[in-house]
Amino acid sequence: MIVKICGIKDLAAMDAALEAGADMVGLVFFPASPRNVTPVEAEKLAARARGKAKVIALSVDADDTLIDAIEASVAPDMHQLHGSETAARVSELRTRTKKEMMKAIPVASASDLAPLASYEEVADWILFDAKAPKDATRPGGHGQAFDWSLLKNIKHTKPMMLSGGINPGNVASAIETVRPDAVDVSSGVESAPGVKDREKVFAFVRAARGAAMEKAS
Q: Of 39, 110, 125, 217, whose CB neighbour count within 10 A is largest?
């Protein structure tokens, strides 16, 4: 079970994620998020993780200028596109950066899964997240889950990551229901928006790995 801790914005949080054994660490480049970091701020965070965990750069409908700045300062292992990027844009950025792409699909009902096939043609990973409330200023990080049973028998050709409202207390249930390749957490391991709680980070990784071992046995 691959575990991703997202929304890391300081070295203490990065160290907690790495020491807990996270496989991926996410840096958010979106000003409306309480977890936002600039490419310059993110440089030292990425350097800390290099060789220990994959660095994932999350952006929301970013233009080429921001993508290029992220590449120059952070050189992430993968870009996570969390906005309304089209399949063509995913493909374009994959060519531009020569990096893996993860495309987020917001889910509230079965009809929201319709774009899956087109994104699978151009992305390396698919992330399913809870659809944001209508008045939200950002597409994710709200701590809300969606009906995981919608993904129970979904057919997919690319690795699948589950996000949205997952925390140390329910990650085992999420894994049992969806059987994803990876789980992603941000607000579920925080004491306040943007503030990672070291104990919650460790508890999340333990619970996810424990559930994955139980699934495999």
A: 125
Q: Considering the entire predicted model, what is its pTM?
A: 0.93
Identify the sign of the CA torsion 81, 172, 35, 48.
negative
Cα 169 to chain centroid, rounded:
19
Sort 95 into a burial class: Cβ within 10 Å, 0-12 / 13-18 / 19+.
exposed
pLDDT tens digits for 158-197? 999 999 999 999 999 999 999 999 999 999 999 999 999 9
> What is the set of active-site residues?
6, 129
185 with 5: CB under 8 angstroms? Answer: yes
Rounded distance between C-alpha atoms, residue 175 and residue 162, angstroms? 9
* Amino acid identity, position 174: A
Q: Which long-range contacts (CB under 8 A, 24 or more apart) does 59-66 make?
A: 59/29, 59/30, 59/83, 60/30, 60/32, 60/138, 60/139, 61/85, 62/29, 64/96, 66/29, 66/39
Q: For residue 48, give the amino acid letter.
A: R
Domain boundaries, the chain: 2-216
Query: In this model, does residue 200 exceed pLDDT 90?
Result: yes
The answer as to CATH 3.20.20.70 being correct for domain 2-216 is yes
What pLDDT digit, counting tens, does each position of 119-160 carry? Answer: 999 999 999 999 875 665 545 454 678 999 999 889 999 999
